[in-house]
Design goal:
Elements: E1 3-7, E2 22-29, E3 34-42, E4 52-57, E5 64-70, E6 75-85, E7 91-98, H1 104-108, E8 114-115, E9 125-128, E10 132-140, E11 145-154, E12 188-191, E13 194-197, E14 200-201, E15 211-214, E16 216-221, E17 225-230, E18 240-246, E19 249-254, E20 257-262, E21 274-281, E22 297-301, H2 304-308
Length: about 325
């Protein structure tokens, strides 16, 4: 699998993006191909402002549009994707270009969004199925953080028979140099969480539909601080064995309160129930720009000490 880099970087003064490496992903099916995309935060540092939204529009059969909106700053940007199937097997001509039209939801947005123009699009080129194209969407000059779209094209799904359809395929891509697997890599992955405290749903958690993944995952609950979760004991850092993970649910008890999180998919690898270790920082509050201290939020890190001791990259989880 080959990676091709495109650069469409724009500097934003907003210092806060999601602390999840993977922000979201999806696919668009066409008759002769399937288009996959995944948005990632690199490096994964403080949480994504709720004002930043990303959408994929595919109602036009001739093209696919990717849109990024920052409603707090009243701006939007994006790009068109056009795909032509070439005669050579599993080969496509990919064209990435500026937005050719203003999407209807932009026109109707009450915030009155202003378009940010981007440049640096490559000339149309042929790629093979499985080649990965990296597009830098937004860059934060203060932290060196950026949001990157990874896109790829694959052959269309074809059912084996009317009674035996193919399983839908997903796409995910991680940049960087490979390394050996370690126990810390067996981490947590939580998608679209729903938090309940003593059986009562935290309504603000229903607005969090992203995915976070890492060796440790943290969440913030209003008036209760931050909870850092790990599958490994981390005793030297003050973690306590407080609960368990089973399938797509986790639960733990701190003091007299019981916390439950239901996710949209499996949280931990394997089928066995696993112990959950928790570090609670009741005084922690989000201090990044546009932070809503009354709302649920969640993020992740590669190392527990980056969160507990604050020894990681600048502004990590603060």
């Amino acid at each position: 699998m080959k990676t091709i880099g495109f650069v469409l970087a724009i500097s934003l003064c907003a210092p806060a993006f999601a602390q999840s490496g993977r922000i979201f992903g999806g696919s668009v099916a066409r008759k002769n191909f399937e288009f996959f995309w995944e948005s990632r935060l690199e490096p994964p540092v403080p949480p994504l402002s709720d004002s930043v939204q990303m959408t994929t529009l595919d109602s036009n059969p001739e093209m696919i549009q990717r849109i990024v909106k920052d409603r707090s700053r009243k701006i939007y940007l994006g790009y068109d994707v056009l795909v032509e199937v070439l005669p050579q097997a599993s080969t496509y001509r990919l064209t990435v270009r500026p937005l050719s039209a203003i999407p209807e939801d932009i026109k109707k947005d009450p915030a009155g969004l202003t378009r940010i123009e981007v440049s640096g699009f490559p000339a149309p080129q042929a790629i093979r199925s499985g080649d990965v194209v990296a597009i830098d969407l937004l860059a934060n000059g203060a932290t060196g953080q950026k949001i990157v779209d990874y896109i790829t094209i694959r052959e269309p799904r074809r059912p084996v028979s009317p009674f035996d359809p193919q399983i839908p395929r997903e796409f995910s891509w991680v940049a960087g140099q490979p390394r050996d697997f370690s126990v810390e890599d067996a981490g947590l992955r939580i998608r679209a969480p729903r938090l309940r405290i003593n059986g009562k749903l935290d309504e603000s958690s229903t607005n969090f539909n992203l995915e976070v993944a890492g060796s440790v995952v943290w969440f913030y609950a209003a008036n209760r601080g931050r909870f850092v979760l790990s599958l490994t004991p981390q005793r030297a850092l003050g973690f306590q064995k407080a609960g368990e993970v089973r399938g797509n649910t986790l639960m733990f008890t701190i003091g007299s309160d019981t916390f439950n999180i239901d996710a949209a998919s499996r949280i931990a690898p394997g089928d066995a129930p696993l112990n959950l270790y928790v570090f609670h920082d009741p005084a922690w509050r989000p201090t990044y720009a546009h932070a809503d201290q009354s709302a649920f939020n969640m993020g992740s890190a590669d190392r527990a000490e980056w969160l507990v001791r604050g020894t990681g990259p600048p502004n990590w989880g603060r």
